[in-house]
Amino acid sequence: MDPAPENTLYGDSPLLPTHDEALKLAYETHGPILLNYLLRLTTGNRAMAEDILQETLVRAWNHPEARTADGEWSRGWLFTVARRIAIDHIRVAQVRPTEQLDERIEDHHTTADDIDRLINTREVRDAVARLPERLRSALIEIYFQEHSVAEAAQNLAVPEGTVKSRTFYALRALHEDLVAHGFTV
């Protein structure tokens, strides 16, 4: 007499699918329905619903009671577990403070930020004013007036190469001046 398989629920029988095949079948059969159910529970939060669906299927994989005697997945078990996991996720989300996206952080600047910006602006303007006229005019044309090198050369009545070199030296002198006045660049 042959001994009975230890666990026919996990596909040890040649008549039943393997455990991996059964789990794939559970996802294909019950996944879309469970996902729609979870989307309603999570008020349309697709990421949370997908996480809960995945966690439900992992729990089903680890619990033999999730399958009937013939190896089919119990839809009732899956929905019950999914609902309980969803409730847990929703409760955790309600307790946790609201997460702010990086985009919103910029909208919440403080008065200290405004003061720092004013101080920085004043420091840079003073440093630009201390530059020699030939360097300052090239820098203003390129960075503040946003002219191209060709336009700046025409406005300053100098060759384009001269505009490029004056801009280079102006930036270097500006950096040195700001550092010398205690400004951290």
Automatic annotation (TrEMBL):
Pfam families found in the cross-reference section: Sigma70_r2, Sigma70_r4_2
RNA polymerase sigma factor 70 region 4 type domain location: 122-174
GO biological process: DNA-templated transcription initiation
Transcription is among the record's keywords: yes
Swiss-Prot/TrEMBL keywords: DNA-binding, Sigma factor, Transcription, Transcription regulation
Residue ranges annotated for the RNA polymerase sigma-70 region domain, each copy included: 27-93
Molecular function, one GO term: DNA binding
PANTHER family: ECF RNA POLYMERASE SIGMA FACTOR SIGL, RNA POLYMERASE ECF-TYPE SIGMA FACTO
Family membership: Belongs to the sigma-70 factor family. ECF subfamily.
Protein name, as recorded: RNA polymerase sigma-70 factor, ECF subfamily
Annotated source species: Actinoplanes derwentensis
Highest classification ranks of the organism: Bacteria, Bacillati, Actinomycetota, Actinomycetes, Micromonosporales
